[in-house]
Structure formats: C-alpha cells, structure tokens
C-alpha cells in the first residue's frame, strides 16, 4: 500500500474538514508507544467526535489505505506503531465522561483517560476498578483494545469484566452497537467481546459503557520481606489459601529488591530479601491486614507490617513504585514481557528463568501481580554491548516457550501487537489461529486495520527501540 494511497485519503479527508497532520514532528509523535519502537505514518487523521471515525474509515477503506488506531500511546507491545505506514487515526480527543450514579455506569469516549474516569466516579462514591500502571495516561479505548489489567486485577479482574457495552466502527465506516449498558443481556452472541483484546484489528471503538462499583470504605497496605524468592512464593501460596482477598498482591524478587535497596537506602530493606506488598480495601481492611501479618509473621522473620495511615502506606508503595526504575542499576536497557503462570508452576518457572539468565550472562529481575500469576520478567543488558540484545531476545523466547509449556500465557495485560506476534503459533494451535484470521477477514476484508499485527508474524529484523526518547509518563 503506497504513499499515494495515503496522500489521496488525506486530501479527501482534509476537504471534508478532518484535521490532518503531516509535519515530521506530529508524525513522529504518533509513531511510537511505550516500547520506543517507531515507524512514521504518512499522516495523522484526528477524530474530534465519534462520527469522524466513520468518515475517516470510509475514505480509507475506499482507497485501501492502512489505518493504525491510536489513543494515548502507552502500549507495551508496539500495537499502535504504524509499521505499515498509511494513516494513524488519533481518537484521543474523544474523551467525554458521563456518570450515571444510579445505574453505576460510566459512558465514556475512547480517548478518556482511565484515571479521569475513576476520579469522576469517585465524586459519586463509586470507582472504576481496572488500574493499569499507565492509568494516569492511558485511554479507555487502548485499555479495551488490549484487555488491560493492573494491580487491582487481583480482586476485580481485568477490563473485560467491566465493559458492559461499546460502540465501534467497522473498517468500511459502518457503526455498530455491541451490547447494551444493562446488567443482563442475552440477545445472541455479544459482539462486544470480539473487540475486547482485538488491538484495533477488527474495528475502532468510539465509546463504551463501563461498570462502576462502590468505592471502598477504607484501604490498608501491608508489606513483608522474605529470605529468598522461594520463601516469597510460599507466602503467596499461604495468602491464596487463606480467606483473604487482597485488592493488590505484588511480588518483587530478590534481584528487584536489591536494586531498590541500592537506589533507596533510606527504605532500610533487609539484605538478600524479596518482598510482597498487599493492599486491602474493604470495611474490614484493618482486620485483613492484621491477618496478613499474622499469617506471614514466621515466614517473614517478623518484618511483615501494616501502614498505620496514608503517609505510611505511601512509604510502603514507594518500594513497589521504585522497582522498574531501580532495575537500570543492572543495565541501561531492558527486554521485558508480561507472562502469566499457573500458581503451582511459579517456583519451577523461576528456577528455570534464573538459570537461563545465568547461562546467557544477563540479570533477570522480576516483579508482578502475584495473585493472578501475571509476572513482568526482564533481561537487563548494556545497550552498547552488540551481542547483549541478541542474547536477551534468545533468552526471552526460551522463557516464553517455557511459560506456555507450563500452561501459561505470553501476555496477561499488554497484548500481542507486533512484538509478540511471533509467539502466537506457540500459544495457539493452527485451528485456533485459522479461526482468528477468519474473524479478521469477516470484520476487515481489505485488511486495512492495523495490518500485519497479532495474527501475522511481524517481520522486524532491523527494528530496535529508539534511545533517549522521553515520554510523558517517564
């Protein structure tokens, strides 16, 4: 698909009043996501209201111009990076938020920021539960596209559990309604479910109706340290077998905690320890935190403690928030994935992963959402070492193959995009992939929506993340 197609589409759209960006700076801003992989689109088409999406798609479909949908660009799998060129369809301006407190529903535009939705709900004593780490920047359209999770998924689940209905545009610009914002809806297959996790390959979500929940009466954070990762995993199992239902249960391995300890000596972290951070958010939060401490007192050598107030809770949370930036003490670059493991396979996988890191000579810090088995595994390396990234890529493939072999998944919340499409044939059988591709053809027969992602192995042999790029959430 040529630049001539994009130019024709851009000219026709501009003539209808759609704002088109063609400057190099604007195209670059729309060329990358959190991965720092970048590919310049031919232009950017800005949708100011839902109807604009249909107008843009009708013209693009007529001219067979590839379209990559973009919200806020916080993705972690290069899902909104326009490797195919064409046009980027920016929906970030469609950011309305309307709260129906009685129905406990939020009606929002695809560009609405996740944290803003939650903040609007809080004014009515409600909350929007999913909280990906990018929630202060990510848009709900992107959350729906990759079925985002977050720290609170331990108790509340991922985005899919909170989308009641949505409206979307198909590749030819036809608008469809997917479900209704009702507590019960059993009127044939719900088309909503095709779009959640489809990463912009089947259509473009323009608005959604989200389930809201009563905001918790109180919260209580608790933190414990353990001598070695094995003791930490034992602690996770003990919590999961108990009556407790933490809203958050975050694990940080020994390598990660050592990085935090080196970066933040004021935290007074025991040497050689891993950590488990929990947060309870019910009327019984104090009692739950006390039970957490009691259950882990022996395993944690008495280090388990609960925050007495919000200020102390923030001190505990700083340990977890420091994890990702602190890792750069082990290398100036990293390769990471968000695998999911069955609880009973966690120790076996970690033994394999640490041995793998030792074998290729790279650090392997890990943190993640222990209650749902979603771990963020990393290989840290020196970007100036020509062979280090290749070793990291080889190691990551071996790690993902092992996770899938154990009954796990290549992704729990980041999605597939371009960077992980090479693992789809490992995760899924040919019959499953054939069906997914048939669904793609049914929704998008010209293959203009986010082509060559998810269902097709991306050919990016010379692609690498850009260095020195600072994004708003850094």
Summarize the structure.
This protein has helices at residues 3-15, 24-29, 50-62, 114-122, 140-146, 153-156, 192-195, 229-240, 254-263, 285-296, 310-321, 323-326, 346-360, 388-405, 424-427, 430-443; strands at 19-21, 43-46, 67-70, 87-90, 97-100, 105-109, 126-127, 163-169, 175-178, 204-211, 213-214, 220-227, 248-252, 273-280, 305-306, 333-340, 366-369, 374-381. The chain has 474 residues and is of the alpha+beta class.
Q: Quick one: biggest sheet? A: 7 strands, antiparallel
Overall mean confidence score, pLDDT = 96
Please report the first level of CATH classification, the CATH class of the largest domain: Alpha Beta
- Poorly predicted regions: none
How far is it from the N-terminal to the C-terminal residue, by CA?
35 Å
Largest beta sheet: strand ordering: 15-12-14-13-17-18-16
- Percent of residues in helices comes to 25-40%
Total number of domains: 4
* Global morphology: globular
CATH architectural type of the largest domain: 2-Layer Sandwich
Number of E-state strands: 18
Please, how many helices? Answer: 16
Strand content: 15-25%
- Structural class designation: alpha+beta
CATH topology of the largest domain: Uridine Diphospho-n-acetylenolpyruvylglucosamine Reductase, domain 3
Give the radius of gyration: 23 Å
List the helices and strands and how they pair.
Layout: H1 3-15, E1 19-21, H2 24-29, E2 43-46, H3 50-62, E3 67-70, E4 87-90, E5 97-100, E6 105-109, H4 114-122, E7 126-127, H5 140-146, H6 153-156, E8 163-169, E9 175-178, H7 192-195, E10 204-211, E11 213-214, E12 220-227, H8 229-240, E13 248-252, H9 254-263, E14 273-280, H10 285-296, E15 305-306, H11 310-321, H12 323-326, E16 333-340, H13 346-360, E17 366-369, E18 374-381, H14 388-405, H15 424-427, H16 430-443
Parallel strand pairs: 2-4, 3-4
Antiparallel strand pairs: 1-2, 5-6, 6-10, 7-11, 8-9, 8-10, 12-14, 12-15, 13-14, 13-17, 16-18, 17-18
Helix pairs in contact: 1-3, 13-14
